[in-house]
Amino acid sequence: MQLVEGPSRTGDRLRLVGNTVLYGALVAFFVWLAFAEPAKVGSTLVKVVVAVGLSGGLFIGANKLFDQTADRWDLFSAVVGAVAGGVAFGVLDANRILQNIGPRPLVWGLVGVAIGGATGWLLSRVDDGRQRLLIGVAVGVGVGVLLGAVTRGRAQPALAPVPTVLGPVVGAGLFALVGRARDGRRGAIRWALVGAAVGWVLGAFGGADIGDGTAAEAIVAFGGLGLVLGARLGLSEPPDRNTRTLLEIASRKYIFLAPAMAFILGGLIIPLLRTIYLSVYDARTIEFVGLRNYGEIFSNDKSFKISDWPHMFTSRLMWFGAGVVVLGLVVGVVTGRRRRSGFELNGGSTPALGLGVFLMSFAALSVLRGTIFNNIWWVIAVTTMATGFGLAIAVLADRARLESVAKSLIFMPMAISFVGASIIWRFMYIARDTSKQQTGVFNSLWVWLGRFSNETTGQVVLLVLVGLVLVACLAALVAGWRRESLSVAVVGAIAAVPFALLAVRLIDSGIGGYVTGADGSIEPDTILFLTEPPFNNLWLMAVLIWIQTGFAMVIFSAAIKAVPSELIEAAKVDGATESQTFWRVIVPQILPTIGVVVTTIIVTVMKVFDIVKVMTNGNFDTQVIANEMWQRAFTELNFGLGSALAVLLFVSVLPIMYYNIRRMQEAQA
């Protein structure tokens, strides 16, 4: 027993010492902070205490309130009515719709509390249906008349007859159909009243010129709304004890969800609705302009330019990509015929088809210009390359020596902010005057390569190196063809093309950063990575690819390790090669993970802002939607157009989010 308890006691003592040191350090820090900044510490503590006390009070109060539903329905109804009335009157007053009668919005809030509380208590004491309807209508009309009478002139609606009449009629009809289908005839009447209220708001307020009306029109507008809502409230039946008990039980989950839902409502839903509202107004959010802001986005060449589309068919990149696609189709047909399956996607055809389409999209998007197409280019390039590199690294590093070290280094960029990464890469891209020594990594290498390739020794060395790589590519092509490993053959064929072109360029005029002067002298020449459109966009994308590759690698690595080893061993026993095992066993197993990574990266890329803001600020034809939204709204103060761009960004992300939600629901089912 002593041998067992000895180490345990030692561990307990070490933990005690560690906890003492930790808590002592925390106490010392707070003591030092209190003496160093007593005012800030005091105000912060007060705010913390108030926030915690208010949150705790609301939570406890809500639980205590719903505890009364079974035995004290009158008290519950009065409190709920008071809260609803206070919030409604307070919101109207806070938005400067009601005339001042005291400290805003305290007095009107108290009026709402009194009216709502009295109405809730009175309805809880009356069981007769006619009396409840009479009370609801009387209160609704009375409150509506009161609100209309005290509405400020700037908020009085000038009622338009057609929308005011048509809105409630259409709303009542549509909602009545829904209610009839769900709850029968009685449900149709109640739903019709709700629809009439919605239609009245849209017709009497939405279809009116706010600020041009009179007090009488305001009374009619608010009174009509109060009449409909009061009638709906009066038609509600008082719940029996059984229903009240069920309400008390069901309320607990909503009480726990309420804080999170409040944050979502205040931080997401309300700003979204406000942004949509602002997007149909002019720059100063005064005049309603409808969809004009959206039309400006797609009619402005800086945002959406397609006039040069014929040039994409003269691009060498387009024809090279088309050639790679044809190669992939040929490989797929050949392998399909060998296995009598028509056409087969495998390790030879799939990469070729993907690469070909990828290159063709680059050729097209280098001609189709503007903010919209830049965002599409970012999505295609970053998503494809980050996912591809991440998957390749995860496969190559799996079960390799120093796997954890290599993955840690590749994942490290994820710890860097987008702004920090942008600054790092901007220094790497920087180009100085050619008379000075280059400090940017890439231009230093480029200038050195240009000087070295124009020397006889350097040209020979580079030719030998390029020749060796070219021979290796051709050898892989031949070996893959002989062994019927078409994936190796395709990779060798595609890789041989750029090295062959590089060899021709070396023999002809050399490579690298140099220009030949009029006197035949060789001068250094730099690349302006960030200022030469359209491919300067790719150098910005490289930053995000560098960051997201580590994320994709970690997720894919975990997914690959989770593939049952029995499946891989069975495939090898059946004679499958490494390539066939990967494409036909591993990839199908990790397809859901690939979907998660792709959709996550797409959402991240769609809202890219920091990289463009830091590196070019959207200049040199590198603008993206998020950065243009910022410039329009907060630099040019064109809130209408800025909001329209924000809505466009939201709508473009929405299908991806919907797909993710559907996929998660299907996985849970």
Tell me what you see in this structure.
The protein is mainly alpha-helical and 669 residues long. Among the domains are: 2-36; 63-242, no CATH class; 243-278. It is 75% helix and 1% strand. It has 23 helices and four strands. It has helices at 2-36, 38-66, 73-94, 106-124, 129-149, 161-206, 215-235, 241-278, 292-299, 316-338, 349-365, 371-397, 403-411, 418-429, 441-453, 456-482, 486-508, 536-561, 565-573, 578-606, 610-615, 625-635, 639-668; strands at residues 157-158, 209-210, 514-516, 522-524. The protein has a two-stranded antiparallel sheet with strand order 1-2. Helix 5 (129-149) packs antiparallel against helix 7 and helix 18 packs across helix 20. The two termini are 51 Å apart.
Shape annotation: elongated
Q: Regions with pLDDT < 50 over 5+ consecutive residues?
A: 1-5
Taken in chain order, the helices and strands follow as HHHHHEHEHHHHHHHHHHHEEHHHHHH
List the total number of helices. Answer: 23
| Sequence of strands across the biggest β-sheet | 1-2
